[in-house]
Amino acid sequence: MMETHIEDKEDGTYWIRFRPVTHGRYSLSVSVLDRPVRQSPLLVTVSEHNNPVRSYGSRGSDKDQFLQPVAVAIDNQAGLVYVVDTGNSRVKVLTPDLQLVGHIESTGLAGRSCTGVAVSDDGGWLAVVNWRSRTVTRLDREGTTLAAFTHTAFVEPIDLAIDTNYGHILVADNGPSCVFVFDTEGKLLFQVGKKGSQKGCFNLISCVTVGPGGEIVVADSRIQVFSAKGDFLQEVFSEGKGKGRYGGVAVDAEGMIVASRSEKGRNFVQVFRLSDGKLLSTIDSYEAKLKRPSGVAATNDRHLIVVDLGNDCIKKYRYW
Question: NHL repeat ranges (predicted)?
């Protein structure tokens, strides 16, 4: 027995939803006034694999192609997906169904060196980081530059995140192996972490994101969580003996972490619970193998978009 949810579509049909605890065959019995409906019980086969529901892109420079895409962010208010197409020095703008809307081109994307993108939840703007020019650029949804800043402490800024609640822009930098926290005008407020292998320290950072409560989530070969003020809270995933590396990390509105990982020739996505770090599921993309997955972003309807760097495309999955 497992919990089910029934939704009346008000057209004579119903949606029945349930979440299997493991793969296998399930029997679903449906009754109305203690009388089974026709064809009840229904037999459902649940696969152990999780494959993409949609894919987009191929290698190249045409309008529907990518050249070394690395990062993705979702504007849930506007219904837009932004993908950093690094090798083509542009940001591709898509619908949540991965239909092309257009491209953003900006000086902040020049030099095939943009490696991170983030979206403000309330201001209708996005930010990108360029590791070569060591610059963070704020853009509106049409791609017009609103502001830009750099800092003398920048060495190799590779990713960024926006905390709308606190008005912070977080920049992960692999030079000093830390996360710099700025206000939206580019004033440095504080620093999170330093180089090292201890808890609260980093080696080669790959990504940074922000949780629904302002939690700062940073990934290198492991995932660590800090408070909005930069205090260490927990290690969600320790490196162990896998010697793997995370490519991207995101936290959805319900407090679930989704993170892409490469380890011993395997490429997959993990889903954790932020509150206690429990691993909930793994996406293996069995029929459409990932190759060097990098940035990830979560939608409001429990789907995620993964940048498949090695295959020069993006893939969309249902993760929960």
Answer: 53-97, 143-185, 189-229
233 token code pair: 């809270």
Say how far apart CA 6 and CA 2 lie, in whole Å: 13
Q: How many helices (H) and strands (E) does the chain have?
A: 0, 30
Strands lying side by side in the sheet with 135-140: 114-119, 125-130, 135-140, 145-149
Instruction: Kindly report the backbone phi and psi dihedral angles of residue 64, in degrees, each rounded to the nearest multiple of 5, phi listed first.
Output: -105, 25
Residues 41 and 94 in one domain: no
- What is the full per-residue pLDDT of the chain (320 aa) written as tens digits? 667 788 888 887 878 777 776 778 878 888 887 888 788 888 887 778 889 999 999 999 999 999 999 999 999 999 999 999 999 999 999 999 999 999 999 999 999 999 999 999 887 899 999 999 999 999 999 999 999 999 999 999 999 999 999 999 999 999 999 999 999 999 999 999 999 999 999 999 999 999 999 999 999 999 999 999 999 999 998 765 558 999 999 999 999 999 999 998 999 999 999 999 999 999 999 999 999 999 999 999 999 999 999 999 999 999 98
CA angle 227, 231, 233 (to 5 degrees): 70
User: Do residues 63 and 42 both lie within one domain?
Assistant: no
